[in-house]
Design brief:
The protein has helices at 26-38, 52-63, 99-109, 130-136, 173-183, 201-208, 244-256, 275-282, 327-336, 356-366, 400-412, 432-439, and strands at residues 8-11, 17-20, 42-46, 67-72, 75-79, 93-94, 115-119, 142-146, 150-156, 165-168, 189-194, 213-217, 223-228, 237-239, 261-268, 286-295, 298-306, 340-343, 370-374, 377-381, 393-394, 417-419, 442-445. 28% of the residues lie in helices and 26% in strands. The structure holds shikimate-3-phosphate (S3P).
Amino acid sequence: MSSLARPLKGCRSPALRGSATVPGDKSISHRALILGGLALGETRITGLLEAEDVLNTAESVRAFGAQVVRQGPGAWKVSGTGVGGWRRPEDVLDFGNSGTGSRLVMGAMATTPVTAVFTGDSSLRQRPMGRVLEPLKLYGAEYDARPGGLMPVTLTGAGAAMPADYLVPMASAQVKSAMLLAALNAPGRSRISQKTLTRDHTEKMLAAFGAAITVEPLADGGEAITITGEAELKGISVAVPRDPSSAAFPLVAALIVPDSEILLNDVLLNPRRTGLFETLREMGASLDIVNVRDSGGEQIGDVKIRASALRGVEVPPERVPDMIDEFPILAVAAAFAEGSTIMRGLEELRVKESDRLAAIVAGLRANGVGVEELDDGMVVQGCGQGGVPGAGTVATALDHRIAMSFLVMGLAARAAVTVDDSTMIATSFPEFESLMSGLGAVFEPA
Ligand code: S3P
């Protein structure tokens, strides 16, 4: 990523019109590369998200000895080493901004006797890695990190791995996934449980690559996943659906810019990812899902959105994991609604690419929106008919979702909204500006 900041302004825009296809899903893209790198034979991926976070994962899988080749736009071929075949990388692994890439790769190498050094940008180097590294010790892995479990991290995979039985204490698909990937090269059966359901792409993809994996519901609403180690994975074809977390930005833009009407194609509809759609509907959004179909084990569909008068709601805390990345853009929608929107159970937002809760609150305040910050959430006072004043500058703290959310706010605010940097948008959605401009959004250099 460029070290030079590129401030940008989201400006009041005419009605957004037309259709667009957002890039491939980030979570599925990381997993396809990693599992491809662990499998025997060829994995052919189409629709891969070619953004910085995923390209760093591709680079790391290559560094562990798999062949990773780009064959055309979004089309990649991975020839894996087989489970247990990863070798020691020749250099430090730099994951840039990506918590998902780094944590999943830590899991994937933790039961193979190799050593690797993990680092990242100044955002990633402040994020807790102990939540993955401590439970990986159950398999026999060892690590050294900066105080607080921070990167740079040196991880040495287990020489004689043992199976693990672990209850993931927080609602985190990354921790669950790291533990599942590590189980692949541990003898016998490992059991990974969670109290709260989180995105299940790892489980689904492991089954598709041929792992013996079962998921059993628990009485408290959680689930226990059992996976048999010393697995033999076989390369498959993966068609990556479009990312609902990226679709969220044009979607909310079309809701708040008067008279807009847009269509977003081929969006992933996995229920662990669509909490935002449900919440926006409860707020009064005109949001229809059409052409629902199956694609490689996931449902996809086209999402039709029309500008709508929104009203504040209370988001049920149990829905939070199904929309964990969508709170910055939901807060923007809430700013345009009539009445207050209450969001609680957001403690995980404090350890995202930034302290996202604090960044959202500061960004709303800078643009004249009333908001109360809670330890685990916020209450946004919608501006309703009066409109969002705007005219503020938002500190993005290397957080792509903060940058995109506040640029969207500027499209419908009374005065433009400036973000202090837009370069990090390339970590997840490099075509954000051009795709949004194609629908009619106006951005200006700041
Ligand atoms: C992700 C899990 C979530 C999410 C992140 C992607 C994944 O993180 O915020 O953007 O692909 O597993 P946590 O596991 O930390 O909740």
